[in-house]
Amino acid sequence: MVNTTRDRGGLTMLLRDVALPMALYYVLRSFEVDALWALLISAVPPVLRTGYVLARHRRIDPIGAFVLAVLLVNSAVAIFSGDPRLLLVRSAWLTLPLGVVMLASLVVGRRPLPFRAACALQPARAGHLDRLWGLSRPFRERWRSATLWCGAGCLLLGCAVVVLAFTLPVDVVPFLDAVLTAGSVVLGVKLMRQRLGINRPVDA
């Protein structure tokens, strides 16, 4: 039941943050809106949602604040340069730093970034997860392995987006970016579950 709820939440996220901006872009282009402005307008829903989440919780969420800052800075740079390709790489501005931070957390942090994120998102289970981290070596190794795969995947996805953005026609990239992002998220969730043994007892 929990996995079904999470799957539905993940699907909602993909539809809202990936499919909706892509569809909005192509609708605007069908009305002959300039590619730069179509990309800017299609980025509005994710920006509004991130701003709403920050305002609703009335606290600074570092990840949400970072996403919002990247989107706003990227949009400003693209407007001043007049180059729509700078907007096509906006997802890489998120995935590349995220991948670096994930991999770095394996070396310099006491806990991998995804583990800390899981504890923050599930405060009721944070104490239990922390105890398992201290008691179970297999548990720690699963989280480290998942972090390694996820971090490497973020770097590969970011690099792929940059290559697509600067080598293909502008109107082709939003569709390919959406497909690549959705596929990466689905594959990433599947790999994370396998690496973390979601279907096994949590203290195994």
Uncertain residue ranges: 199-204
SSE string, helices as H and strands as E: HHHHHHHHHH
Shape: elongated
Count of beta strands: 0
In total, the number of domains comes to 1
Query: In whole angstroms, how far apart are the ends?
Result: 21 Å
- Outline the biggest β-sheet: none
Per DSSP, what share of the residues sits in E-state strands of 2 or more residues? under 5%
Work out the helix count.
10
Rounded Rg:
18 Å
Mean pLDDT: 83
Helix content range: over 70%
Q: Briefly note the structural class of the backbone.
A: mainly alpha
Please, could you describe this protein's structure?
By secondary structure, this protein is mainly alpha-helical. It has one domain (2-196). 84% of the residues lie in helices and 0% in strands. The protein has 10 helices and no strands. It has helices at residues 2-30, 35-42, 44-57, 62-81, 85-88, 90-108, 113-121, 123-135, 137-167, 173-196. The protein is elongated. Mean pLDDT is 83; it is low at 199-204.
